[in-house]
């Protein structure tokens, strides 16, 4: 059986401290222990704002013919030997393991992890993160994986929308303005996000579906502006699909009353 090294993390919180590792922490194993599935945030990207904490779940399902004794997990950004961001219980606090119903070999082990942008998230942490895990079986078999899975940690985005004039006569042109911004983890504020594609969308009053009218690139400070012809009452909004480092978002629809000419 290998000896785990001490992991410098904050249990259930984000830490940027270095990780003390040994070669025993690299991929290794003994016997038939397997990692079947690893999920972070139920398989969705982790989107974190400028100041609000985000609590997510780490879930590791493992298998061994003798059953699973315990499992450990840790999230990190950068290289395994020299991460620049980390979160999770680490190697000192086991996850909570529950046998999979009807199975004598499989267990799902979970932990809640709170990501706090105030604790040390920096903009460079946005992007692909890894999941380290170590699983022990009841018969002393084990498996150790320094990257059992990956997930995306993204900066939250915001959008505004303002259509004018309102009300407007049918057939007249309206102007829809907005601003695209995203969380800046370096200074814990939101800043304009320039050079990004955003869709201008419209939803007719009494319906539930928005349709794209045109696509615009955000300018300096994340400013958006477009014109359209008003024909019927409805809601105008901007929509941003997100990137590999920034989450998707939609503006609240701005209602425009269209009157007969």
Word description of this protein:
This protein is mainly β. Helix content is 0%, strand content 55%. The chain contains no helices and 23 strands. The chain has strands at residues 14-15, 28-30, 34-40, 46-48, 54-63, 68-78, 83-90, 96-99, 106-115, 127-137, 142-155, 157-159, 162-164, 168-169, 173-184, 189-192, 197-204, 211-217, 223-229, 234-240, 249-250, 254-256, 258-259. The strands form five sheets. Strands 1, 2, 4, 6, 7, 10 and 11 form a seven-stranded mixed β-sheet that branches. Strands 12, 13, 15, 16 and 19 form a five-stranded antiparallel β-sheet that branches. Strands 17, 18, 20, 21 and 22 form a five-stranded antiparallel β-sheet that branches. A hairpin with a 6-residue loop joins strand 17 and strand 18 (211-217). The radius of gyration is 24 Å and the shape is elongated. It starts with 13 loop residues before the first strand and ends with a strand.
């Amino acid at each position: 059986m290998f000896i785990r090294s001490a992991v410098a993390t904050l249990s259930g919180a984000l830490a940027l401290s270095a990780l003390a590792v040994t070669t025993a922490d690299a991929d290794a194993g003994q016997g038939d222990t397997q990692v079947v599935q690893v999920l972070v945030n139920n398989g969705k990207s982790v989107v974190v704002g400028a100041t609000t904490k985000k609590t997510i779940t780490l879930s590791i399902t493992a298998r061994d013919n003798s059953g699973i004794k315990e499992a450990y997990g840790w999230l990190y950004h950068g290289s395994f030997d020299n991460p620049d961001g980390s979160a999770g219980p680490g190697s000192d606090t086991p996850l909570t393991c529950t046998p999979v119903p009807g199975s004598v070999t499989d267990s799902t082990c979970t932990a809640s992890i709170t990501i706090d942008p105030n604790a040390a998230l920096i903009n460079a942490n946005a992007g692909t993160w890894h999941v380290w895990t170590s699983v022990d079986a009841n018969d002393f078999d084990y498996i150790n994986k320094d990257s059992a899975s990956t997930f995306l940690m993204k900066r939250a985005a915001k959008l505004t929308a303002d259509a004018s004039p309102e009300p407007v006569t049918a057939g007249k042109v309206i102007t829809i303005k907005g601003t695209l911004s995203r969380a800046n983890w370096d200074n814990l504020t939101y800043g304009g996000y320039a050079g990004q594609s955003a869709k201008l969308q419209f939803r007719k009053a009494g319906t539930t579906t928005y349709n794209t009218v045109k696509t615009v690139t955000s300018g300096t400070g994340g400013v958006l502006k477009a014109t359209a012809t008003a024909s019927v009452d409805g809601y105008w909004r901007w929509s941003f699909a997100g990137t590999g480092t920034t989450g998707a978002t939609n503006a609240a629809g701005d209602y425009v009353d269209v009157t007969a000419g």
